[in-house]
């Protein structure tokens, strides 16, 4: 059986981890593939600054460093920021799938211009970075925020009546005012709103987390992985040092 490691970008308890695992219910996968969800040990409080981005990269790298040695066939990054994706590709030979860039590229299979529907404005820099790396600025109709304070632990639980209509209103503005013909959820923490929005929007809406699971399954079946030309191996892997950092973070 194929095994995929899903790296969750924040430390969390078992109950909150189940809310992340619930993303699996949004996509039908083969019976011969299993997904394990692993929270990081090193992480910022949230992804709102350049400092946070560095900590996120280190935490995701530390969490996934041994994935191949542990027998996993692919890794999924459970954040639209794609934190740690590039570093992990440099040290792993198995596919590493980032939620952000793959959602954007998939959007262009479904339409001509997409909008990113965000919870709040302080995530805007994350999308700008990926759009610039992919050269897709002209294909992004807008990045719109619903002005909602996210919770990376409890997600949207208990706030559905307030948050879902606000997200729908922002999504409709993306379509009617900005000209988007595809919508991308701007965070895997928003996955609980996907079914509500998909039933009410006149255009496709991409749920980035479940998309990575399908892409990981496809990459495994097709025996595809990233290019070593783009992601060269490090001259001196920092496995022991990163593990020590993770041990220190876990003791705090």
UniProtKB/TrEMBL annotation:
Coiled-coil residue windows: none
Listed Gene3D superfamilies: 3.40.50.12500
GO MF annotations in UniProt: amino-acid racemase activity
TM regions (residue ranges): none
InterPro entries: Asp/Glu/hydantoin_racemase, Asp/Glu_race, Hydantoin_racemase-like, Iso_Racemase_Enz_sf
Lineage top rank: taxon: Bacteria
Recorded family membership: Belongs to the HyuE racemase family.
Listed name of the protein: Allantoin racemase
């Amino acid at each position: 059986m194929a095994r995929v490691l899903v790296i969750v970008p924040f430390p969390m308890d078992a109950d909150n981890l189940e809310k992340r695992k619930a993303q699996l219910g949004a996509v039908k996968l083969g019976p011969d593939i299993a997904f394990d969800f692993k929270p990081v040990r090193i992480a910022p409080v949230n992804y709102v600054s350049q400092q946070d981005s560095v900590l996120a990269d280190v935490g995701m790298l530390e969490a996934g460093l041994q994935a191949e040695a542990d027998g996993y066939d692919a890794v999924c990054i459970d954040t639209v920021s794609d934190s740690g994706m590039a570093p992990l590709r440099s040290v792993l030979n198995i596919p590493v799938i980032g939620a952000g860039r793959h959602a954007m590229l998939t959007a262009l299979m479904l339409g001509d211009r997409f909008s990113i529907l965000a919870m709040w404005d302080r995530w805007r820099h994350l999308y700008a970075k990926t759009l610039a790396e992919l050269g897709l600025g002209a294909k992004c109709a807008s990045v719109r925020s619903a002005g909602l304070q996210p919770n990376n632990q409890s997600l949207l639980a208990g706030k559905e009546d307030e948050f879902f209509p606000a997200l729908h209103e922002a999504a409709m503005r993306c379509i009617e005012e900005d000209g988007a013909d595809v919508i991308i959820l701007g965070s895997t923490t928003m996955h609980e709103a996907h079914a509500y929005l998909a039933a009410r929007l006149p255009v496709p809406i991409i749920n980035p987390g479940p998309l990575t699971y399908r892409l990981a399954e496809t990459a495994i079946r097709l025996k595809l992985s990233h290019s070593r030309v783009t992601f060269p191996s490090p001259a001196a892997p920092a496995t022991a040092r990163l593990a020590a950092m993770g041990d220190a973070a876990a003791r705090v």
